[in-house]
Design a protein that fits this description.
The protein has 4 helices and 4 strands; from the N terminus they run ββββαααα. The protein is mainly alpha-helical. The chain has one domain: Arc Repressor Mutant, subunit A (Orthogonal Bundle). Strand 1 and strand 2 form a beta hairpin. The relative contact order is 0.15.
Length: about 90
């Protein structure tokens, strides 16, 4: 992705380490663990991927991605746990 006429090669991941496009989950992923969701959120926020590209690549709706972002903002990676989603949404 290009930002201010410069290519972005990496962005800080959820754990602070740099992530690149190659570090992101495979497009055919069927099991979304918290780390993978957080990496995709970080990639979009950092400009490594656009929201549109992320939704197309991972077959997500903008609403689902937005839910990931809100849960991550409110509760960190723990908020992205599937078993905790209902608890955190209330």
């Amino acid at each position: 992705m290009v930002q201010n006429n410069q290519m972005i090669d990496s962005v800080p991941g959820p754990d602070g380490r740099p992530i690149t496009l190659q570090d992101l989950p495979d497009p055919g992923i069927s099991r979304w663990v918290t780390r993978r969701k957080a990496e995709v959120v970080a990639a979009v926020r950092g400009g490594l991927l656009t929201l549109k590209d992320a939704c197309q690549k991972y077959n997500l709706s903008e609403e689902e991605f937005g839910c990931w972002e809100r849960l991550y903002d409110r509760h960190g990676s723990k908020g992205l746990r599937v078993t905790r989603v209902q608890q955190y949404r209330n």
